[in-house]
Amino acid sequence: MARLKGEKRRTLSSRAWLERQISDPYVARAKREGFRSRAAYKLAEIDDKYRLLRPGAHVVDLGAAPGGWSEIAARRIGGHGRVIAIDILEMKPVAGVEFLQLDFLDETAPGRLKAMLDGKADVVLSDMAANATGHRQTDHLRIMALAEAAAHFAREVLSEGGSFLCKVLQGGTEAALLAVLKRDFASVKHVKPPASRSDSAELYLLARGFRGASAAT
């Protein structure tokens, strides 16, 4: 009986998700404009306001699949820039994007990304999210662990003046992570672009003006 109740809850949740997708103007817009996901507009709206993706920039995209953020990044930095992307899931090729299929939490991932980058990055993006358990506190801890890992990587590879953008959840970014970012970056804030659903708990943590490797030690 418990299994049947669980199946019913999943069915209702799936139905609600499908109804939301059908009525979502960003989903329709993504199909019309040829983007892989509505998530592309989250990055586009943040970049419209904060100008992170400058022509010729070197960008690392963590948790890239299905590729919406990589598409936006590649278009905005142009042919003289570079986008290095990673995801545990397969991702169909994106023009101008070098992709590594690997779990970012694999101990070899940071080194392999650095080898591909072969220098410094101007922007590190992370839209990584752990699979939801339905337990709010557990989900919060899991996504914060990803955010902390992404932030650690960003501080290792960013050039001076660089930017870091990552997904977190409402309920408070961990004080320790905020303290480290405020030490290492000139500006740190939470942002929620219009394309992020109003009923979603997701936020984005934006850190700009990296002070350089000496500040991050």
What keywords describe this structure?
single chain; 217 residues; alpha/beta; 7-stranded mixed sheet; 7 helices; 7 strands; globular
Could you characterize the architecture of this molecule?
The protein has 217 residues and is an alpha/beta fold. It is 43% helix and 23% strand. It has a 7-stranded mixed sheet, sandwiched between helices. β4, α6 and β5 (158-169) form a beta-alpha-beta unit. Residues 1-8 have low confidence and may be disordered.
State Rg.
Answer: 18 Å
Strand order across the largest sheet: 3-2-1-4-5-7-6
Q: What global shape is seen?
A: globular
Structural class of the secondary structure composition?
alpha/beta
The separation of the N and C termini measures 55 Å
Kindly state the mean pLDDT as a whole number? Answer: 86
Strand content: 15-25%
Low-pLDDT residue intervals, each spanning 5 or more residues: 1-8
> Total number of helical segments?
7
- Main beta-sheet annotation: 7 strands, mixed
Order of helices and strands: HHHEHEEHEHEHEE
Tally of DSSP β-strands: 7
Share of helix among residues?
40-55%
Provide a concise account of the structure shown.
With 217 residues, the chain is of the alpha/beta class. The chain has 7 helices and 7 strands.
